[in-house]
């Protein structure tokens, strides 16, 4: 699977924890009804997401992210890699158009040069390091190389013999690319971008990897995996894969390159041959991942040095090719409604959509009925709210009055726009409430 996120602050021999670990989100765009960039940003703000990774450098998205403070990772798409890897001037033009033109208003912090190139686009592997260096040279020329890191997300599948982690090494057939790449990452102060998918490790293990071990569920000591060489105990696949990357780098004599996880997640739905792609498992994995990163647990090899991670992904991508699971990695649907409510009590504000502080947008007491009707008509028209539940015979038709119908339309729009205060105004006839206006079988979006 080629895609998704991150930036971190860990050093290995020299531990310089200058930044707090963070959770970011990948934003894919393979949706039949992709939200407008302003709606995407409204959702990010409402969820207090401060780090995102884009799979391209979409201009409208970069403009919408301007002046938000959100840290943005942009990507050189794989189909542009060959041209950039063969031409310094093409790389310079890319950086000028997609970074310099937007910085610093848009807080671009890193560039992914391709994604999982070594495993998905082997014919471009020979120019990958050149592409990375050309992009970096363009940043140097613009005096942005200190602000914007350059790296390339790698699939964890290039790490062989990954358990026990201390025996892990990179696929040696890739060393001609990996060694100069690691040289660059070390000399430029960048980090190794790694995509870590315990879901696939679990699926491909034929029962060797227990589900609880993949999901970060608490394990009794006798169920923990032990590295017989280091005697380190592993309680989850994620930490074992990250440490395998550290050991694989150390095997090549690189011991101070931080790891950032650019993609990790769990699908909420799958085909019949993917019985563990469920809402409950996706919620468990992602909730535990967030807590694990933000609690600064670190890994057994580097305790206390947390690995910042970009979750895969913000939206379900219904037009993505492949099995059903490919379409169902999202935390939200295209309307900004959560696929499930993350269990994050006590782990900070990021993605804390666990409804203990749910808010709703409803009509103000005493609002002018004509103003309400006009606002209702706007919400169900230009506002693009799905108002079919208000039709006769549908769950929210009764009570058939303008206040009840406006409540539903206002609240739907408010949640669609990421619960920003200005999305609950409607010319002064709406207000934010903590009281759930759902009734009977008419369930409001904020429930």
From TrEMBL:
Give the family, as the similarity comment puts it.
Belongs to the glycosyl hydrolase 17 family.
What SUPFAM superfamilies would the database entry show? (Trans)glycosidases (SSF51445)
What protein am I looking at? glucan endo-1,3-beta-D-glucosidase
Q: Which organism is it from?
A: Lupinus angustifolius
Q: Which UniProt keywords apply?
A: Cell membrane, Disulfide bond, Glycoprotein, Glycosidase, GPI-anchor, Hydrolase, Lipoprotein, Membrane, Plant defense, Signal
| Residue ranges annotated for the X8 domain, each copy included | 359-444
Q: Which Gene3D superfamilies match?
A: 1.20.58.1040, Glycosidases (3.20.20.80)
Q: Where in the cell is it found?
A: Cell membrane
Its placement in the membrane is given as: Lipid-anchor; GPI-anchor
Query: Where in this chain does the entry annotate a coiled-coil region?
Result: none
Q: Which GO terms describe its molecular function?
A: glucan endo-1,3-beta-D-glucosidase activity
Q: Write the Enzyme Commission number(s) for this entry.
A: 3.2.1.39
Q: Where is the signal peptide?
A: 1-17
GO BP annotations listed: carbohydrate metabolic process; defense response
Supply one GO CC term from the record. side of membrane
According to UniProt, the reaction catalysed is: Hydrolysis of (1->3)-beta-D-glucosidic linkages in (1->3)-beta-D-glucans
SMART domains per the UniProt record, alphabetical: X8 (SM00768)
């Amino acid at each position: 699977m080629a895609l998704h996120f991150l930036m971190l602050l860990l050093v290995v021999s020299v531990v310089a924890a200058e930044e707090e670990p963070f959770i970011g989100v990948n934003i894919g765009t393979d949706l039949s009804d992709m939200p407008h960039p302003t709606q995407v940003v409204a959702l990010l703000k409402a969820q207090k997401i401060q780090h995102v990774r884009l799979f391209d450098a979409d201009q409208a998205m970069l403009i919408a992210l301007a002046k938000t403070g959100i840290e943005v990772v942009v990507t050189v798409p794989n189909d542009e890699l060959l041209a950039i890897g063969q031409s310094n001037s093409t790389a310079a033009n890319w950086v000028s158009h997609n970074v310099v033109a937007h910085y610093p208003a848009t807080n671009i912090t890193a560039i992914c040069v391709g994604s999982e190139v070594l495993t998905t686009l082997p014919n471009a592997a020979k120019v990958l390091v050149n592409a990375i260096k050309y992009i970096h040279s363009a940043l140097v020329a613009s005096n942005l190389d200190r602000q914007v890191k350059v790296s390339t997300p790698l699939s964890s599948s290039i790490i062989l013999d990954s358990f026990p982690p201390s025996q892990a090494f990179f696929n040696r057939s890739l060393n001609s690319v990996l060694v100069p790449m690691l040289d660059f990452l070390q000399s430029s102060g960048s980090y190794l971008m790694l995509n870590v998918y315990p879901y696939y490790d679990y699926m491909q293990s034929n029962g060797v990897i227990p589900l609880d071990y993949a999901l970060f569920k608490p394990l009794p000591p006798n169920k923990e995996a032990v590295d017989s060489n280091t005697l380190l105990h592993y309680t989850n696949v994620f930490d074992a894969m990250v440490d395998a990357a550290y050991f694989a780098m150390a095997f090549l004599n690189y011991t101070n390159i931080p790891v950032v996880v650019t993609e990790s997640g769990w699908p909420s739905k799958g085909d019949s041959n993917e019985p563990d792609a469920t809402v409950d498992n996706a919620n468990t994995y992602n909730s535990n991942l967030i807590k694990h990163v933000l609690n600064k647990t670190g890994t057994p090899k580097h305790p206390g040095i947390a690995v910042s991670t970009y979750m895969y992904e913000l939206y379900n991508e219904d037009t993505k090719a492949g099995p059903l699971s490919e379409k169902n990695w999202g935390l939200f649907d295209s309307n900004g409604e959560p696929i499930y409510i993350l269990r994050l009590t006590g782990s900070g504000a990021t993605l804390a959509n666990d409804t203990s502080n749910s808010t709703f947008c409803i009509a103000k007491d005493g609002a002018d009925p004509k103003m309400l009707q006009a606002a209702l008509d706007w919400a169900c028209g230009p506002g693009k709210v799905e108002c079919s539940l208000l039709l006769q015979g549908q769950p929210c038709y009764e009570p058939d009055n303008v206040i009840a119908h406006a409540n539903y339309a206002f609240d739907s729009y408010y949640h669609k726009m990421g619960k920003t205060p200005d999305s609950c105004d409607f010319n002064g006839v709406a207000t934010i409430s903590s009281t759930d206006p759902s009734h009977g079988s008419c369930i409001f979006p904020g429930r």
